[in-house]
Amino acid sequence: MTRTTPPRPVDAEALFPALADHRRTSTRLHPRHGDPKADESSVAGPFLWPTGEPWPVCTADHPKGIGHRLSDVRLQRRILDEAWHRDPDSGPTEAEREILDTLQPGPHAPQIGDADPIPLLAAAQLFTRDIPDLTGPDGCDLLQVLWCPFEAHGPGRTIDVVLKWRRSQDVGEALTVIPEPVVVGRAECVPNTCVLHPEQVVEHQYEGLLDEDLQEAIEEWEVGNDEEDDDAFDSSTPSSFDTYEEYEAAMAAAHADEEYEVTYRGDLSIAPGWKVGGFASWHLTDPAHIACEVCGTPMPPLITVAVSEWDGASESWIPLEDRDSVPDSRISDPTGVYLGRGLMRVHTCPATPAHPHQLSFQ
Ligand SMILES: [Zn+2]
Ligand SMILES: [Zn+2]
After folding, report:
1. Å from CA of 219 to ligand 1 middle
2. Which end of the chain is more exposed for a tag (fewer CB within 10 A), N or C?
3. If you measure from the C-alpha of residue 150 to the centroid of ligand 1, how many angstroms do you get, rounded to a whole number?
4. What does pTM read for this prediction?
């Protein structure tokens, strides 16, 4: 099934023609649980990896035997997922809860020393034929993304990402069993296996990086929208209540009537969810200027890994095909990955894609 982002609630460039100079495309990946093959784009699916090529390992010095068993992470998710789909309100059965109680983090692999190599997790495999915004070194049509599932690298104590570009026709015989670490630092570093439904969309630059005039015009427009809503609210809602329950009921009723409030950030700027290309959002920190360490070229985000496919402020991006399935977490949070404070980006050098990448987090 394809995934279709609805048209934006308003035409951003008709409202603000100057935005045309701050437009970029991105490809939303729309990961959904599935059973991808090694020659398909996927999150955490089988990789098209040559049998003769060593699998990347982490050799950094950090505790590698303490954490969650990878098999426990998967079992826990399966149990919770089945319970939710049986009945979202009643939770796991007593028998399931007993199993869940045994799935605790701990020193599960004491035989692994801090400097011992552990296989990286296969995070994503992306073919350029599927993803129009995926551009890499000349001739390469496949990007494989792997990471060490311990947040223990570099000054930011983050995961460590390895990118492998290749020509798929050169792979020859492919690995049938992918190496995996036994223990992972945090369960949220482990992606669920997903098939992808890539869809190209248009984005506009993060508001804080636009010219001041344009920022002001957008702000005025948003304030105008807000005042319209407030007028509607004020005329129908009494200003005092006898009990807290009455107040709460009135607020709930007002909220139910409230129309979805269109904002630049939520609806017109940056697509939520896992994606390739497009812009980076800087809603939690000041914008960072990320440039290539080798040649100084500004590095846009190539891959964005997101905690969810949308949130309450970006519901207009929910694909048409999924609107009846909300709030199923298999749709809104298919990968189960939560890095940084919700977003992890891999920035690559557009001038020479083989130059070292950098990560940014929000
Ligand atoms: Zn590591
Ligand atoms: Zn460079």
Report:
1. 43
2. N
3. 5
4. 0.91
